[in-house]
Amino acid sequence: GTAIISLKLIRPWNKPPRLLVTSRAQIHSISLWRCETDKITLCSDCLGLRDPYCVWDKSTHKCMAAINGRKILQGNELIQSISSGTHPECMGELLNKTEQENMSRSHKSEMDSNNGTEDGEDTSSDRSDVGKVCSDPWQFVGSDCVLIVESELLTWPEARDACKHVNGYLAEPTDFQILINFISENYNFEMESGKYLLGASDIEIEDEWRYAASGQLVPNHIWGFGEPNNYQEQDCMCLWNSQKYGAIVADTWCNRQYKYVCQKGAVVPP
User: Fold this and answer.
1) A single GO molecular function, which one (predicted)?
2) Is the bond into 228 cis (omega within 30 degrees of 0)?
3) What is the SS3 assignment for 97?
4) Is the pLDDT confidence value at 34 over 60?
């Protein structure tokens, strides 16, 4: 496993306590009660709930909450990395597989952007976005049209409505890294003032992040290091230029005003 750097018990008002575990591998937070439900009987189930906030109890062979009061339960192993190989029942290859898939997608996207393969073979006929365009002031980013709005700062609900008003929706990027690179290269991506609102939130159900337009669940792998952390009730998605980790996908406050990104599909001109 990976060494723990810090532990912090968070007690939001009128909500269950949460344990924030910081390690070099990952930072996540889940509700503690989810570690000890009757439905969680396997190590893989525990990991599916964004471990490391659960421990694997060797005596009962069940997952349990990683704290007892404010103390770490002694004698139990705090699982910190699903790729550690110490627990074959913990789907130890899942993280590596995800990383390999992400690298493969990134490599394919890079090749597609050059309209060919590494050997120079033209693959443009295989691309579904060939010939599609975006009307001004929308810009073609990845496979979609996006509208980067910096001229007005809006709350998340206001930005969602503003995107609808221009026949789009608050952005649900197909490839977050392409959007991050585009904004970083072409816009003033500063620290706090540089946040750009995107189209997901967990307003309806805490810890269940969904895109507002499509209703789809947000994949866990898109989040930046330590995100989403629900710091002081952050329930809406944004791009944030973190001082420590660079530009990442993070959660932010829904009622504060930020820049925002609208999105709509590219079209083939008549």
Assistant:
1) chemorepellent activity
2) yes
3) helix
4) no
Please name the helix (run of DSSP H) or strand (run of DSSP E) that holds residue 111, with its range, or none.
helix 94-113
Single pTM value for the model:
0.53
Cα–Cα distance measured from residue 242 to residue 264, given in angstroms and rounded to the nearest whole number: 27
Measured distance CA(190)–CA(225) in Å, rounded: 18
Vertex 234: Cα angle to 229 and 240 (nearest 5): 75
For residue range 183-238, what is the model confidence (pLDDT) as tens digits? 888 887 665 557 899 999 999 998 899 999 999 999 988 888 888 887 778 899 99
Judged by phi (left if over 0) then psi (alpha if -120 to 50, else beta), residue 79 lies in: beta
Q: Could you give the residue range(s) of every CATH 3.10.100.10 domain in the chain? A: 132-265
Report the alpha-carbon distance of residue 212 to residue 164 in Å, rounded: 11
Backbone angles phi, psi at 247, to 5 degrees: -75, 125
Tokens of 46: 């525990």
Give the CA-trace dihedral at 93, 104, 148, 215, to 10 degrees. -50
| Average pLDDT across the chain, whole number | 67
* CA atoms of 177 and 173, how far apart (whole Å): 9
CA 78-82-86 angle, to 5 degrees, is: 70
Instruction: Find, among 178, 61, 22, the residue nearest to 108 by Cα.
Output: 178
| Percent helix, strand and coil across the chain, each to the nearest 5 | 25, 30, 45
Torsions phi, psi for 217 (to 5 deg):
-70, 145
Could you tell me the CA-to-CA distances from 165 to 159, 160, 169 in Å, in that order? 10, 9, 9
Q: CA 156 to CA 166: how far, in whole Å?
A: 16
Tokens of 102: 């992400």
The CATH code belonging to domain 132-265 is 3.10.100.10
